[in-house]
């Protein structure tokens, strides 16, 4: 079944609550609304793709920031510590292997499993 | 390095000539311009993700068509024969494992390896 991203983004308003919209082999295609600062974390086992659909997203890295606007993407390499942050709500697609934990090895209150929508 | 998709789409005009814009573990993130009909083919080993950025894309399947507009996506399951077609140029992102051949098992003149841009 096809996925209309705008329709899916219209179904929720919580930020940092990843939603599962499709699978690709053993990868998950997720969408998330981002506002405010996440938590610094690292995925030791996988790269992580961020594609911005709407808004502006900063991916803070220890050696500098990556600023993304609509239709811009960035792949955080495995093992690279990062922390997303956005002043206003940004709508973002995330792609990574199924089971990847959103907070990586950091844990804490912002850890949340993706919910299918 | 971040990828600006509009900038990348501006670098070429050929259709059905996939361009490699990023890697995600052992997956390729590719973009392609689509106009006209491709060739019916199947990927026996992998699902294939189509995300339309601009234009309209029809993914013909043997049991019906999937019509995609901007910000709509579809994952063709492995083993499912399909054939993309578009009346006007559509700008599309493709994600699949590195080494996936664009024409699957069909071969022929439209077979083309992705070129990094």
TrEMBL record, chains A, B:
The record's listing under Gene3D superfamilies reads: Jelly Rolls
**Pfam families per the record?**
Cupin_2
SUPFAM superfamilies in the record: RmlC-like cupins (SSF51182)
Query: Mind telling me which InterPro entries this protein's record contains?
Result: Cupin_2, PKS_Associated_Protein, RmlC-like_jellyroll, RmlC_Cupin_sf
> What residue stretches are annotated with the Cupin type-2 domain?
35-92
Q: What is this protein called?
A: Cupin domain-containing protein
């Amino acid at each position: 079944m096809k996925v209309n991203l705008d329709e899916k983004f219209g179904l929720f308003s919580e930020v940092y609550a990843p939603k599962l919209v499709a699978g690709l082999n053993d990868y998950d295609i997720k969408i998330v609304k981002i506002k405010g600062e996440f938590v610094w974390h690292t995925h030791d086992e996988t790269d992580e793709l961020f594609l911005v659909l709407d808004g502006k997203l900063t991916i803070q890295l220890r050696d500098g920031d990556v600023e993304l606007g609509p239709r811009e993407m960035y792949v955080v390499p495995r093992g690279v510590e990062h922390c997303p942050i956005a002043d206003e709500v940004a709508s973002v697609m995330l792609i990574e292997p199924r089971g990847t934990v959103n907070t990586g090895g950091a844990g804490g209150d912002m850890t949340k499993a993706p919910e299918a929508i």
